[in-house]
Amino acid sequence: MKKGTILVAMLVALLVSGCNSPSAAKQKATANSISKKRAKPKVNPRIGKIISSKKHDYNMPYQMVNKKMKFYRSLKEFGTTGGEYSDYSTEEGHIFGVDKIYQTSKGGTIYHLRLYQSGGFEGLAAKDDSDFDYYDNAGYVKASDMQQKSPIRSERTLPKIPYYIAKPYTRAAWNRPYNTAYYTYVVHVLDKFVNKQLYATKEIIKTNGERYVYLESKTRKLGWVYASGQDLVQGNYVDPGKKLLKPKRLEKLECQIQSMNTLPKNRSQSSSVLVQQRLYTVKDKKQHLLRLLVIGMDNRMIRIDLNHDKPVKLVVYSYLQKPWKTITNQQKLMSHYRAAHLASDVPWATTYFYPKSKLRLATVTIDSTEAVSTIKISRTGRAQFKTDLGKHILGYSAKRLQ
C-alpha cells in the first residue's frame, strides 16, 4: 500500500509540473492573442479608418447634387450593395440636415443625414412617434454628393399688409413653411379667424416659387400661411352681411352666431369644423323677413331672397364672395338645390325648402368628406346650428390648434 501511494504522488507531481512549464504558458498566451484578434472590430476596406468625427448643426439645409448617389445604412456597410439604404430617385425633392461629419482614411468625408420632416396637425407630439425616428435617420452619404443649399429664395419683413381668409379648410398656419426648417408643424387653424382682419408682417418665397406670409391679428400671432389667392385674399375684411345683403335705411340687419359649445372638440385635417356658422337676416319695420345670408362651416355664403314669406331667389357664392350659382326656378325653390363642385375635396352646399304650412323655412347643409354642418331656419328668422365630425375620422385637439 505504501509503495502504491508513492507512485500516485509522483504522477500528480509530474502533471502539475507540466501545466506550469514554459511550453504550456506559451500555448495559453497564443490562444489569448488569437481571441483578441478575433474580437477586434474589422475596418471597412472601402472607407478605411475613421480619423475623426464631429457633430454638425442639422438645422442647416442640404440638398442632393449627384443623381447617381447612394445612401447607406451604416459606416460598416458603406459602399456595399447590401448596405444601400436609398438613392437619388427615391429621395428627390427632400431636404436634409447633416448631424455628424466623419473623416476617413480612404473614403474621404462622409455625412450622416437627418431628413427634414413635418408633424402637421400632430404638432410636436409627432416627434415622439417611432415612425419619426425611423424616417429621421437618412443614412450615410459621401459629402461630395451633398450641397448646403437653402430652399428659401428670399425672406423679408412687410409693412403690415391687410389680408382676410376666404377658404379656411385648405390651409393652416405653420411654425415655418414646409421644408424650410428641420421640423415644421401646424400651430393654428384658420377657422377662428374667418371674420377677422389679419395682417401679413413677413414674407418667404421658396426656390420653387411658393410664397408664404406670416399672419397676425390685432391681438395675436398666427404663423406662416401659404399665400394662395383662392384661400387668402389681400385687402380689408368687410362684414359679409353688410356687403352682400345691403340693408336699406328702414331695414334692420341682425346676426346670429353658433355657440362654441356646440362645436366639435377635435378638428380634422380637411374640414373647418371649428368655424362658427352664422345667419344674417334683414327685416322690414314690420318684422317681415326679406333676405337672409347663411355662412356654413367652410365659410361658404348662401343668400335667400323672399317675397311675402316665399323664397324667390337663391344665390350661392364662391369663397371669394362672387355669385357662383343663381337659382330663380320655382320648382327648385320649393324643394331643394345642391351646389356641388366637380372636385371631390370641395364640400357640397344643399338648401332645402319647406311648404308654407311648415314652421321651418329652410335648412342649409354643408357636407364634406369628414364632417357635416347644418343650419335650420324658421320663418321668423331664428337659427339652429349643428356641426358634426365623423366618429371614425382622425381628429386633432381643437384646444391646441386655437
From TrEMBL:
SUPFAM superfamilies to which the protein is assigned, alphabetical: Prokaryotic SH3-related domain
Record keywords, A-Z: Signal
Keyword Signal: yes
Domain of life where this protein originates: Bacteria
Signal sequence segment: 1-25
InterPro entries according to UniProt: GW_dom_sf (IPR038200)
Protein name, entry field: Lipoprotein
